[in-house]
Design a protein that fits this description.
globular; alpha+beta; single chain; about 170 residues; three-stranded antiparallel sheet
Length: about 170
């Protein structure tokens, strides 16, 4: 399956497959402690991990028709985040997202999350749709609730850290 030009689009941003040219911007974003505070074990990705992520994300989109991509502003084509879908082993498909702190507080997170929900329902036909969240990450929890997710389960992640699983309510 060839890579699409756009994974989803909102009023202000486009989510497209990662490109090699995204490496520097993505590494900068992945190195930001504010951005990575609640992602995985909280440790930023190393350069080799960013390269692997770009390649795996492109491979997943090609193989499955969905994956994770670059969030770029329409106004200037600047990479400001990432968003998409992952399929953890022995689990349901999850949405993931991360956004530059410079973009926080203006409703863009909810716009991106709604774009993911719409893509899951209409283009990718993903159901059920989950999101895993650190219980301390109130911004992300509020964002998920705003676009129709509700708490589904409480568990531990692969690092033994508390994790809440949210599921999109059926429409």
């Amino acid at each position: 399956m060839p890579l699409p030009d756009i994974l989803f689009e909102t009023d202000r941003v486009i989510c497209r497959p990662f490109e090699v040219k995204d490496f520097d911007d993505l590494l900068t974003l992945q190195s930001d402690k504010q951005v990575y505070q609640y992602v995985g074990d909280g440790q930023p990705l190393r350069p080799d991990q960013v390269t692997l992520w770009i390649n795996r994300s492109r491979d997943n989109i090609e193989k499955n028709g969905f994956g994770t991509g670059a969030i770029v502003r329409k106004s200037d084509d600047q990479l400001i985040g990432w968003a998409g879908f992952v399929w953890p082993e022995d689990a349901e498909v999850e949405i993931i997202y991360g956004l530059s702190p410079n973009e926080w507080g203006n409703g863009l997170g909810a716009e991106i999350a709604q774009g993911l929900v719409d893509a899951a329902r209409n283009r990718c036909k993903i159901w059920p749709l989950h999101a895993t969240v650190d219980p301390e990450n109130s911004r992300s929890i509020n964002l998920l609730k705003k676009v129709g997710f509700e708490l589904f389960a409480k568990t531990k992640d692969e690092d033994g850290l508390d994790t809440d699983i949210y599921q999109l309510k059926s429409s």
